[in-house]
Amino acid sequence: MSSEWISRLWLLQLAFTMAVLAVLLLRRPCRRWLGAERSFQLWMLPPLAMLVSQLPHAITHTAAPPTLVHIVATAGGAFPAMPQATMSSDWRTAVVAAWLAGMVAVGLLGWFVQSRYWHRLRNATPASGPSRWPVLFAAEPELGPALVGAWRPRIILPADFKTRYDECEQALILAHEEAHARRRDGLWSLCAVVVVAVCWPHTLAWLGWRLFRLDQELACDAAVMRDHHGLRRRYAQAMLKTLSAASALPVGCAWSPRHPLTERIAMLKEKPSLTRHRIGGYVVAFCASTLAGMVYAATPAVPEGKGVAPNHYGLSIDVAYNGGAPETHFAQCLKPGQYVTVNGSATGVAAWNGRFTVVPAEGGQLEVQGDLSGGTLEEPVHPKVRGQPGQTATIEVGEVHHGDVKSNHSIRLDVTARLGC
After folding, report:
1. Domain boundaries in the chain?
2. pTM for the whole thing?
């Protein structure tokens, strides 16, 4: 399981890296030629690439490796197969645990910052107006303007909103926050927090977070100016009067010092034509489909035996006594967790009983686990053998003397596990 988690996390990181590098390469040219709104839409590429990297591929058929026989045999009893790569399994488990701990830590940090902001709004008062979204007046002048929340966003205005801004500036600030709400920027911010939490060890995750918030504000400014292009100077004056929050709001959009005002004011002069805006939609869609195809093609296909656990396993058991040829043959179709019972006896070998099941193992292997008692065994044994689907493994218990067949008093089980029946 640890190996599978490591593999999936590694694919996530590769897909995320490829997507973020593509965004960093394209965002400025796209903003210059197609507008800030289309440039911001490029940030859908990282979560899209990460999602595509986890999509299942068709199962590929690989050539069966040479038959590998595991012999679990000594005179007087059977020993379980040697544990495979215990040290390796331990470090994989430690890496997965550290990764999950980091994700939880980032999530808790975001929750704490968000909760602290909401706590400061406990004395906020609702405002009346024509806005489609709830508008609250904060009790402090340092809070707002901002949009808070993802599913049910609220517009937060500072306590001195009506005295700090004139009527025209008030309308523009409210239009800015409504544009955030209309564009679902709170939901975009939540998605960005999730991506950062998943990729928290990656330097590009934190750089991308900062640039994402900047592009988000530039896109919102562009949306406002598309409807109020003649009020660029008044809009810039409103920006200069707005106080910056101490830190970026995780789920929401606050005026933060991470949004350089000089760059935002300079972008107010840009007004891409409607034709460029429409072309930009096709360009972004092309980039998204191309990157998704590249990530999917680069993701390795699942070899046969490493896909989703089947509904049934096939188990064949050939039983031989005293070093001779197999005398008894069992074949059973098992559900996951189901056991098959076998038993028998022979000359020199008292009656014995056993039961076996098949479980998936690392690397696409199948493990046959058994319980044996009776025969020449003084006490029950619990052998385990592991191999690729379709390979035969051997369990041999009892008194084994390979040089003297007459002295053999043993039970040999040739077990073969397969995917499906």
Report:
1. 71-84+308-419, 93-270
2. 0.67
